[in-house]
User: What shape does this take?
Amino acid sequence: MSGIGRLLVFVVMILNCPGIGAAADHESGGGRGWYKGNTHCHSLWSDGDEFPEMAAEWYKSHGYHFLALSDHNLLMRGQRWHNVHDRDQPVAPPVIEKCRQRFGPSAVETRGEGQQLQVRLKTFEEVRAIVQEPAKFVMIEAQEINGKCGEWQVHLNAIQHADPLDFQAAGDVVESFRVNLRAVADQAARLTRPVAVHLNHPSWPHYHVTAEDLAELTEVRAFELCNASQGANRFGDAHHPSLDRMWDIANTLRITEHKSPPLLAVASDDAHHYQQFAPEKANPGRGFIMVRAERLAADAITAAFNAGDFYASTGVVLRELHYDRKNATLRVAVEAQAGVNYTIEFIGTPADFDPSRSPVDVPPKDGKPQRPVFRYSDDIGKVLARVEGAEASYRLSGKELYVRAVVRSDRRMANPPAGESQVEEAWCQPVGWEKWLAPPATRP
Ligand SMILES: [Zn+2]
Ligand SMILES: [Zn+2]
Assistant: This one.
C-alpha cells in the first residue's frame, strides 16, 4: 500500500466512529424520504408472463413504493387483446384464476372461445387506478425502447415521456442510442413534468455496449450497472471488463475527456417471469433503486432520479447516505441485519491517473468480429479505502476525479440469478467531481 493509501485508511478510521449524524432518514409515508422502486420490468403487453396489474401487485406487496412497468417499444395505452393460446406467450388458466382471485371475478375481460379465446390487457391508467395508493404505492409510465444496430443490441428506458416511441437504428451503436435519446429529449422539451432515461444492460447479451460508448454518450445520465437477471455479464470475462470497471472507465473518460458528469448507477430486475421463480428466470425483486424524493409521486421520484438522489441495490439498504460538500466527506451507514457482515469500499480515480490504454485482442464470436475493448491502467477505479463494518466515511483529499461508495454483504440474495452476483450489495453515486467540470479560473 502506498503512503497515500495508508493515510486514506487512517482518515477513514478516524471518521468511522459511531454517532456521527446517524439519524435514520427513512420514511415510507407521504413526505420526503427514501422510496424503493423498480424502473425496468415487463408484462403481457410485451414479453412478460403476467397481467400488468398483477405484476404491479407483486411489487406493491413486496415493500416497493413505486414501479415503472417498461414494456418493449410501447406504452400501455388503447385496446389490447392477447391470445390466451398464443404459441410464444400462452396464458395458462391458473394465471387468469390468480388475477380473478386478487381483483374479483370480473377482473379479467375475455372474448372469443376455444383456441380463439382472448383476454384484454388493462391500460396504464386502468392499472394505476387499481394499484396506486396515496403515500403507499405509485405507478410511473415507462417504455423500454429497444432494437438492433446491425449485430448490436441497443436498449434504453424512457420514463414519463409523452408518447410511445419507435426504435430507430443509426450508423453505429453510439449514434443509435443518440437518435433515440434525442427523440425522448424532444418530447421532454414540450412537457412540464420531468422525464428520465437510463441506458440498459450494456453487456447483455455479449458486451454490445463498450465503456467508451458509455463515456461518449453524455446525453444519458444513468445506466444499468446491475440488471439483476441472468445473462447480464456483470463480471465480464477474460476479454471484457466487469460492469463495475466499465463504470469507472466511463466516469474517468467523461470527466477528463468529455467534460461531462459521471454516470449514475441503476439496479433493476428486468422481470419477465412472475409464474416460476428460479435462477435462470428473469424474476422480480432482485435489483432496485432507493430514491430520496420530496414525496411519493411520479414527478417527485422522476425529478429525484434526474438529480441523482438515489442509490442502486440488490438487497442492502442504507440507513444514511450523505455527502458533506463543505468537508468533502462521503458518509454511508447500512441498515445492518443481524449476523450479516458488510464491507464498504470507497472507489475513485486520482486526477493524476495514468491515462495509457491498449487494445485487447477480442476473439470473434460465432465467426463475427466483436466490439473493441481497451485495457486501462489500475489507477482507474482504484480502491481508495476499505472498511469492514456497517458504516464508514471518506474524506476526499481533493485529488480524486470522483469517489463512489459500494457496500458488499455476505448475505445471499433471496433468489439470486444464475451466473451473476449471489450476494446483496449497494452502489452509491459518484461525488466530488463537480470542480473538474468548472471553468479552470473558478476551480478551487
Ligand atoms: Zn432490454
Ligand atoms: Zn427489459
